[in-house]
Amino acid sequence: MGTGTRWKRRLAFALVATSVVTLAACGDSKNEAPATATASGTATAPSKGTATTPGTIAADIGKADKADLTGAGATFPAPVYQAWFADYAKVAKGVKVNYQGVGSGGGIQQFTEKTVDFGATDLAMTDAEMAKAPDAQHIPTVLGSVVITYNLSGVTSALKFDGGTIAKIWLGKITKWNDPAIAALNPGVKLPDAKIEVVSRSDSSGTSGVFTDYLSSISPDWKSAIGVQKAPKWPVGQAGKGNDGVTNAVKQTVNSIGYVELNYAKANKLPFADVKNKAGKFVTPTIESTSAAAAGVTLPDDYRGSIVNADGDTAYPIASFTYLLVRKDASSCAKAAPLVRMLWWISHDTAAAATAKSLDYAPLPEKVLPKLETTLKSLKCEGKAILPQ
Predict the structure, then answer these.
(1) Which pLDDT tens digit goes with each residue over 237-270?
(2) Under CATH, which number does the domain 4-143+322-385 receive?
(3) pTM (predicted TM-score)
(4) CATH architecture assigned to 146-295
(5) Which end of the chain has fewer CB atoms at under 10 Å, N or C?
(6) What's the alpha-carbon Rg for the chain, to the nearest Å?
(7) Phi, psi dihedrals of residue 90, rounded to the nearest 5°
(8) Angle at which helices 369-378 and 333-348 pack, to 10 degrees?
(9) Where are the domains of the chain?
(10) Burial level of 119, CB count in 10 A (0-12/13-18/19+)?
(11) Integer Cα distance of 236 and 259 in angstroms
């Protein structure tokens, strides 16, 4: 699934159930269609072992590896993961990665059942999930934003929302686009007297987990009725599978509203809203505002933390780390060792960071990297450390 041929097909703006949508680079205006990216990695060619932290292990330590790796999970980071895996195949020509975007819940399940070499999730595993996979290690990879996107007849300007209004829409308490609560946030915008067609996720989703985490932090009604869930029973609306499914449903449904990762909205020319943050500022989701959400947050030792509704004037409030799931001590080195060396490249290669930015994901904060290095060096296979100590 990470081959160059399939990657080019994704760049043709096709929506496929278990793959990713078209990739796009940043534009000057948040609602303009960004320039379409070419084949994965051509925006930034793979480097030859350029480490972002001088003096550490070379980024391309795994260039001689040979392995066929399989992974499954979140669609939220699927565009950047597919780009990275295609780029890494140019660095380590013997390593191929087949990644299936089945949703975070499916990724956790397949990782737990040991049917894949790694999983992927946006919402960190719960204590109950960890109990079923006690050897799981979360590896943060990038940060992304969940955006409120819409298809509203006659409205071309960017809308503004606050958390309370978003919660009421998804609870079914606000049902019309010209509801006074929406109108008050958008003075001067001619809102239609039309039913709001709500679109959510049908699968077990980390994007839904981040979205419901945010709503739970804002709305007592949401917290008591629904709470933080990857697969809630949605009170209203229709549902689509994966970020691409929700994107497609919003595109095809007039007067609709949904939530997707930023890259999916931009690549499909869908508008998305500014959201009021904890400081009372309306913030546009960008790489910078996503990074700002993580600026004041210290992740716990196992990385299972939340950055929704973070402090800071410029912090976008529906942001999240996303994670790959690996084993702390794998039973076989045949795949575990190449996987960990690829993770070192992802976290240390300058081209990998540039690729993430080109697809509207925020690279990991600098303050996270020393801790991540320690974590990666602690990973083992057959009882022995994989990376040089």
Answers:
(1) 999 999 999 999 999 999 999 999 999 999 999 9
(2) 3.40.190.10
(3) 0.85
(4) 3-Layer(aba) Sandwich (3.40)
(5) C
(6) 20
(7) -85, -20
(8) 170
(9) 4-143+322-385, 146-295
(10) buried
(11) 14
